What does this fold into?
Amino acid sequence: MECDDARLLQQWILANARDTGMTFEIVPVVTSAETREVVAPFLDES
It folds into this structure.
C-alpha cells in the first residue's frame, strides 16, 4: 500500500485492522532523486 501522508496510513490501520491478528510495518521509502540530492555533496567527483 502506498500513501503520501503516513498519518493517513496509520489512521487506516488503526480504524480497519484492529483485532484482526494482522501486524503492519510502515517503511518510509525515499526516491532515488531524493537520495541523489542528499548524497551528492558527499561524493568525490575527482
Q: What stands out?
A: The chain has a mean pLDDT of 88. Residues 6-42 form one domain. The chain has two helices and no strands. The helical segments are 6-16, 32-39.
